[in-house]
Protein 1
Amino acid sequence: MTTRAFITGAGGQVGVDLIAALRERGCEVHGSDIADRPSTVDASVRWHKVDVTDAAAVRRAIQSARPDVVYHLAAILSSGGEEKPQLCYLVNQTGTWNVLEACREEKVPRVAFASTIAAFGPGLPDPVPNEVPMRPRTMYGVTKVAGELLGEYYTARGWTDFRSVRFPGLISAGKPGQGTSDYALYMYTDGIKFGRYEAFCRPDSKIPFMYMPDAIDGLIGVAEAPRERLGKRCTYNIQGFSPLASEFAEVVAAAVPGVKITFKPVEWRQAILDSWPRSLDDTVARADWDWCPKYGLDAMTKDIIPKIREKLARGEL
Ligand code: AKB
């Protein structure tokens, strides 16, 4: 049977690649977003223009799609969330509640949720284990912890089967959306496009990152894992690689001749980065559902540069 998937925030950086991956696997995909369908998303993907803060609209869209799984991605990211904390609360907290309630009411069997390293706060061991006290310093992090806990609650009540992965900073040949990890992605995209990029962080900043194909594998992997293997657990750390910002700059400079990467830290964004883990311990995900990323920094760099050049040539970046 073809799996029917419904994606919130489908027009974002993760959403467009998730759509392509699910379609390649033969799934029927419904995309939803507050924005119109991006020009890069195939017209055969049914598009629901929905604001996740509108509970009735979310329910109507999910009712009409009748999905087997909802991938809930819609969110305001960390830097955007610190600029507009009230909006961040509304989209991330109320939006997640609306999506979970619609899934309960429409009996959607599974929900897969994009959580984040931002759910953690400072002062934790390195690497950060799967289960630790969650004391995030950003509104984005607070709402993501609440999303994880709400999902666990819905699962315990038998209202849906919720799973989530804590994503590191994600890098793809795509447009990011006001994250604090975006300095790494911009070193590649602006480095290639303009020949220079001024990063808003210190060169010794260090947080976990992941190449998008691994992130998509992780999200689909946790969504499709048999519940018997997960036990009662709903949320998983997944780790990619953790270079210093200066190491990113060196790798980009080696791969893109003539590029100039400089650093001019922005205090409030640097404080966010300093409050996040330097790396995650993902042994639980490896044991429970065979999580195994394919890309390190060098393999990603080799793969992404031609993709960025192609997208630039098509005017898509
Ligand atoms: C952000 O920077 O806000 C996101 C994240 C790490 O979740 N990319």
Protein 2
Amino acid sequence: MELSYFHVADDFPQGQEPEAAVVIDVLRATTTIACALNNGAEAVETFADLDKLKRRSDEWLKTSRVLVGERGGKRIKGFDLGNSPIDVVPELVSGKRLFMSTTNGTRSLQAARKARNLYTLALPNRKAVAEKILSCETSQLFILGSGWEGSYSLEDSLAAGSLASFLLDHAEDKINIINDELIAALALWNQWSNEIEACLRTASHGRRLSGLGNHDADFTCCSQLDTLHVVPTQVEPGVISAA
Ligand code: 3SL
């Protein structure tokens, strides 16, 4: 399997339809997606564009939808929830469709949506997604981070490295690391794998979140490793559900 990592949406090779892609936004979109689906959400429909989200969500009964999203880390006015993984509790999301837009994560999902198989990964569901990828015997995997407004992010690279590390540990002879970005991500994982929360808090986006108020519970949740068994999978363009 040929593995490549791209830091942000604009780096994702355009005009290609890779066999498989994994989108990562550790802080916090893909962690929120994993938690919401684990807590029984019917699906998470993702949008980079807020007007499209509003038009599409208006087609749903208010009782069966939840609007989730942030800009600059803060809940979007008129939305039910912000982008915290600890807010998507079963009482609020079970059986419902989430309509989600975030600053960076949903942009990466849009950039990768033509992949023939598309998954989202956060640290809590790393093992579940990695095992799915191994079981599909895919020959090409593009890993895409989300970063912050076009810039590199430490925490997404950490998670990309954690995925590559798991795949190497379980199928070393089948894995071919293609680009330097992923070699660097692996080195990052080797450096911080025993101090995940410290890495997230050190990252510039971690510091940005801390500056917005107390996000201790978010950091704890986003730093968990291999605790959720959900594989968020694109089932139609932009729509992610639990496999
Ligand atoms: O950038 C994003 O997509 C968000 O996950 C950012 S935040 O953690 O909700 O601020």
